[in-house]
Design goal:
Elements lengths: L1 H10 L26 H14 L2 E7 L20 E7 L11 E5 L3 H7 L4 E6 L22 E10 L2 H6 L2 H8 L15 E14 L8 E4 L1 H6 L2 H6 L8 H7 L1
Antiparallel strand pairs: 1-2, 1-4, 3-6, 4-5, 5-6, 6-7
Length: 245
């Protein structure tokens, strides 16, 4: 139903300046041409993962009724999803698997420890100084890339933290998070990573961007040079990068 309702909602808010209307919003046009390949989409997604550091972490409440003893929860939450904003960082040795500073008291990590799978959802935010355009769809949130990483959380060993300076990488992105680093006097915390098993990508409107699953080998196979050299719409050098692909 959403795919049939959303276009009408968008059309209800189209201002006087009208660009080429999207023909497909949440699926690819069956005969779409000149859209990014799956690999190019994977590179864009890895670029977003690298640029950003805040995302929505979604988990599911456990069915086990004894889990309600973990905190003051309403009854009958078992199986209900919940999404909460959280910090992450793209750090070595697995920059494709987000590093997270897990906090024991947080609902997301209680659910994860109870067996919930985890989804991290991200969206692209163009730079504030992005070039202006008369096309109302260029920077429309409905036309900008977003994606979800599905997987599970595993702890990062102390030896990895030390060897790859994971704490420094994370605190470079989130200086305030040093207050709840492992061993702090406020809450129990530990270093963890999201082990990515599936990637779902919406690159924009379906007549001009890829929409669908990105194979995990494509996700993992993107090189750091590709991430560094990629440019998304609104970034400096985007037009040159787009012309070369």
């Amino acid at each position: 139903m959403l795919s049939s309702v959303l276009p009408s909602l968008l059309l209800g808010f189209v201002p006087a300046v009208v660009a080429q209307s999207p023909q497909y919003v949440l699926s690819n046009h069956p005969h779409a041409q000149n859209i990014p390949t799956v690999h190019q989409s994977a590179v864009q997604a890895r670029r977003i993962l690298n640029l950003s550091s805040i995302a929505t972490l979604s988990t599911v409440f456990p069915e086990d009724p004894s889990a309600i003893l973990l905190e003051n929860r309403p009854l009958n939450l078992g199986g209900a999803p919940i999404g909460l904003i959280d910090y992450y960082a793209s750090c070595d040795p697995t920059p494709h698997e987000p590093t997270i500073l897990a906090i024991g008291i947080a609902t997301s990590f209680k659910n994860a420890r109870a067996g919930s799978n985890v989804t991290l959802s991200l969206r692209y935010h163009p730079p504030l100084d992005h070039p202006p355009t008369d096309d109302i769809y260029t920077y429309s949130p409905a036309n900008l890339p977003r994606f979800s990483l599905l997987g599970y959380i595993e702890p990062v060993s102390a030896s990895e933290v030390k060897k790859y300076h994971i704490d420094r990488c994370f605190f470079d992105r989130h200086p305030d998070a040093v207050a709840w680093k492992p061993g702090n006097a406020i809450h129990r915390s530990w270093w963890a990573r999201l082990v990515v098993q599936q990637v779902y990508w919406i690159g924009g409107f379906g007549d001009r961007a890829y929409i669908g699953w990105i194979p995990i080998d494509e996700w993992r196979g993107v090189s750091q040079d590709e991430v560094k050299n990629a440019r998304l719409v609104g970034e400096h050098g985007y037009e040159k990068a787009a012309a070369s692909t």
